[in-house]
Specification:
Elements lengths: L7 E3 H8 L3 H9 L6 E3 L2 E5 H11 L1
Antiparallel strand pairs: 1-3, 2-3
Length: 58
């Protein structure tokens, strides 16, 4: 199911996978629901974090 997703997602890729908007994803990151990091001014989200978030949400 997640084989086609890259190991590190961009902000937009993560939005697309989770089907959420910009502000919702930013809230999730700032509330530590999903661990993410920045490279320069761009958010990067590990695929494992997205999968774990989905598992917790079920």
């Amino acid at each position: 199911m997640f084989e086609s997703i890259p190991d590190i997602l961009t902000f937009r890729e993560c939005q697309s996978v989770l089907k959420v908007g910009k502000n919702t994803l930013l809230d999730m990151i700032h509330e530590k629901q999903i661990d993410a990091f920045k490279i320069g001014n761009r958010w990067k989200i590990p695929k494992d974090e997205v999968i774990e978030y989905i598992r917790r949400a079920i």
